[in-house]
Amino acid sequence: VLVAGCAAVEGGRAARSPATALAYPPARRSDHVDTYFGEQVADPYRWMEDTTSAETRAWVAAENEQSRRFLDAIPEREAIKRRLDELWHYAHYQPPKHAGRRYFFLSNNGKQDQSVLYVSEGLHGRPRALIDPNQMTADRTTAVAEFVPSPDGRLLAYSVSESGSDWRIWRVRQVDGNRDLPDLVRHTKFAPAAWDRDGSGFYYLNYPTLADGSGDDRAQGSVYYHRLGSPQADDRQVYALPDHPTRIPFPAVTDDGRYLLLFIADAVVENGLYYIDLETPGAPVVKLFDRWDGVYNVIGSRERTFFVWTTAGAPLGRVVAVDLDHPDPAHWRVVVPEGKEAIDHAAFIGGMVVASYLQDAHSVVRLFGADGTPGGEVRLPGVGTVENFEGRGDRNEAFFQYSDFFTPESVYRLEPAGNRLELFRKPATSLDASRYVTEQVFYASKDGTRVPMFITHRRGMRRDGTNAVLLYGYGGFDLAESPRYRPQMAAWLEIGGVYALANLRGGSEYGEAWHLAGTRTHKQNVFDDFIAAAAWLIANGYTNPRRLAIHGRSNGGLLVGAVLDQRPDLFAAALPKVGVLDMLRYQTASSNARQWAGDYGLSENEEEYRALRAYSPYHNLHDGTCYPATLITSADKDDRVVPWHSYKFGAALQHAQGCSRPVLVSIETRAGHRDGRPVWMWVEDYADQWAFLVHELGMKIEP
Hints:
Blueprint: E1 3-6, E2 9-10, E3 13-14, E4 33-36, E5 39-42, H1 54-72, H2 77-88, E6 92-93, E7 97-99, E8 102-108, E9 116-121, E10 128-131, E11 142-149, E12 155-162, E13 168-174, E14 179-188, E15 194-195, E16 201-206, E17 222-227, E18 236-239, E19 248-253, E20 259-267, E21 270-277, E22 286-289, E23 296-302, E24 305-310, E25 318-323, E26 333-336, E27 342-349, E28 352-359, E29 362-369, E30 374-377, E31 385-391, E32 398-403, E33 410-415, E34 420-425, E35 436-444, E36 450-458, E37 469-472, H3 487-494, E38 498-502, H4 512-516, H5 524-539, E39 548-553, H6 555-566, E40 573-577, H7 591-594, H8 597-600, H9 606-615, E41 629-635, H10 644-656, E42 663-668, H11 679-696, E43 699-702
Parallel strand pairs: 37-38, 37-39, 39-40, 40-41, 41-42
Antiparallel strand pairs: 1-43, 2-3, 4-5, 6-8, 7-8, 8-9, 9-10, 11-12, 12-13, 13-14, 15-16, 16-17, 17-18, 19-20, 20-21, 21-22, 23-24, 24-25, 25-26, 27-28, 28-29, 29-30, 31-32, 32-33, 33-34, 35-36, 36-38
Helix pairs in contact: 2-3, 2-11
């Protein structure tokens, strides 16, 4: 355990320094200019979008070298790294998937960089290792990404992610004998395989192949069927959307194997949902929901009835039973009505609806019969987060994960009929949770909106304005930020830090309206919410601007970049990670990136361009401003948020910085956006980030 204290602070930084004033690697500023609706916008680092060019690669290498020198010279880094390694290595489990007589699950014994896929004969049978990705590559950067057992449990379709890429390679393993079949499916991402009823093949989302043999994610994906024993070149295209270039069809098969579902995605607030009756040869595609007036998700089926979780006509969500012979909304039967809280997730398990709600940003689970009869509330172990439900409509057995700020992901087994809950697997860590406490507060944003925030800190902390506070946020894509255990946050608490999690608009904390209030031309609300959270923490004695840092990743990296631009005086340090930072050109990276337009809008539309231009982090830096000390992190194999966002923003911020606070750019060369990173890489990453904060916030730690 690490003990924290305070060091002398000069201008927000510790008096000691691991490096003298930085001389940043030169980055050529071109005269490239784009014109948007009569306005000229400079893009001096456009050349960095060619991430494979010699010039870009040389700049990244030089930035990495400088960052490495700076971070390695921080005396506390090694102690932080050791403690992170201890906290990260704990035994943990994923909820098991049932098929036939078998259960399949991922587990880590606490000493492994990647989780191993196991199978057991029966729920309490002795687990047998089926796939160990730790043996696949020397640096353990290959991971099992998704796995789907065949209906009888004899076969397992599984995908691997290499170096954190979103691209997947699917193989099929014969469970008896533990050997792979010859089948190999490439160029898929974002969707698991969906087996047919008899396990003779599966449906998957496929992208076109480029001349060099790689997948083309600038093009549109379509659904294919792979029959076992045949080469991928012979796979049959099942469905494509050539008339809608931004829409992508995701396949699934109902539990009874009768229907192929096609979830047509274009944005997170609305979708289409089609189906094909697999029992009828040559059956057409039926466009069941094609009004694009809400989210539609089939959670289960009974013969000719679909149980659908939808926001259509119910912004907080409801579950309806839809007769396929009479699918008009006038004939829908409400199973779970819209309530006061938003439904975050719903599943059809054991003939019942399991509905997980968000109540002031934490989970509440309620049960309903297929006829709508209330089945009671599931008694959860605390104020936390429930996710990853596994179960089938025909089995009275569900598994899910529960977590809170002090409780690692514990697996629970639920029998919906009877509302019986039991702990199935619980990890143990070396964090002494009794030393810390979480409080939930509510504060007013700029426009008066009431926003919740969780604050976790050591017991007995004095609110004297001197605490080192890390404020985290996301605020987008209808995703809620709720209490979860994170090893890196446990380490941050141990070195004396306070962790604040703001539940910003743009997420799903209070349903569709909360999400929409932080999208497109309303995106500034998200930044206002974050700035207001910082101001509240200062006004209420938790910290001051010299001891306050901000952190966010992906869309949260955008958040940090925008707020850093708008209120540089409010923060001492900033950690934008894998951020979306050039908002005028984000959509040019891939077809997936273009789908983010539902949250961001597009610079191709004038009203949305005006909003994007006003907050785009890359375009709103001002030369000579004293910006917070900033550590920009990304990965050169990130194919979700491409790393040139961080390259361009990093070069621009270094050029604009008007004081001695450092701006570092650190790019991992063996990782992607998030998935598949080995434990050692996470440990190194957060050792850098927390050491940077210790230095810049003037913290002192001792073993």
